[in-house]
Amino acid sequence: MKRHLISAADLTRDDAVLILDTAEEMARVADRPIKKLPALRGRTVVNLFFEDSTRTRISFEAAEKRLSADVINFAAKGSSVSKGESLKDTAQTLEAMGVDAVVIRHGASGAPYRLATSGWIDAAVVNAGDGTHQHPTQSLLDAFTLRRRLVGRDAGLGRDLAGRRVTIVGDILHSRVARSNVDLLHTLGAEVTLVAPPTLLPVGVGNWPCEVSYDLDAALPKSDAVMMLRVQRERMNAAFFPTEREYARRYGLDGDRMAKMPEHAIVMHPGPMVRGMEITAEVADSARCTAVEQVAGGVHTRMAVLYLLLGGNEPAVSHARTEETK
């Protein structure tokens, strides 16, 4: 793996499979009475969040603490950033403190790349979401969930998602999750279809390694997994569809639509869910919905990423598994 994780497009198939296999090892640690590993003892990780977050921030913090790292949480609100301090000055402050890794979420696309390549800080940089650009660890945890559900936990080790069909539905235009998933799932061999109204598809989407459709009902019977995305109103400055009711009628997933999916197919959502719009309560609370499972997998996957960036390039607890099987 490279020193930083900025984009899902930076990962080779071998990189991605190594992370997913290591995440499986981390999941086994979570089943133990004591869920901690000493892998990052003495290392300091800063969670540098310039945007609000619940799942991602808490997931990274849990992952870091389970690896025994020293954790510093930084929120832009209430910090010198709210007084006008630049990213450069913030980075140099962290450098002076001797941090080993920075997990950054920023509203500006490209901010993590700038931090990683600027020379301002000598630390590994992990992109926890930048603008409408990338969210690589989200795509990794989604791939982790897909592989477990569609390939199998033990049989999935060393395997990719070749031939699996994943449909991503909703606000593609503003979604860094969609961009990251298209990149990573294509690398892992999956066939991806984007479904959205024309107004919520980005310019140049025809060059992405996926298919594009405007018809959700036609895509559902051919899908192994359907990922529903929230409409990101906070990033919109215009009307992209007539009404919420019309959007839900055309692009929302309800029980009748879920019944059109193959029996083995799953429903995914990166959260937060807006029940009644892109997904109904019936679907969100069904056994086929993996939203909560994705959150759990997020801790394992982010443990794997941090371990591989800071700790080594082999699965963290392989030796422990060998001892257990003797």
How many domains comprise the coordinates? 2
**General shape:** globular
Q: Roughly what is the average pLDDT, rounded to an integer?
A: 90
Oligomeric grouping of the chains:
single chain
What is the highest CATH level, the class of the largest domain?
Alpha Beta
Helix % is 25-40%
Order of neighbouring strands in the sheet with most strands = 7-6-5-8-9
Report how far apart the termini are. Answer: 31 Å
| Number of beta strands | 9
Domain Aspartate/ornithine carbamoyltransferase carbamoyl-P binding: 3-147
Pathway: Pyrimidine metabolism; UMP biosynthesis via de novo pathway; (S)-dihydroorotate from bicarbonate: step 2/3
Subunit structure: Heterododecamer (2C3:3R2) of six catalytic PyrB chains organized as two trimers (C3), and six regulatory PyrI chains organized as three dimers (R2).
Protein name: Aspartate carbamoyltransferase
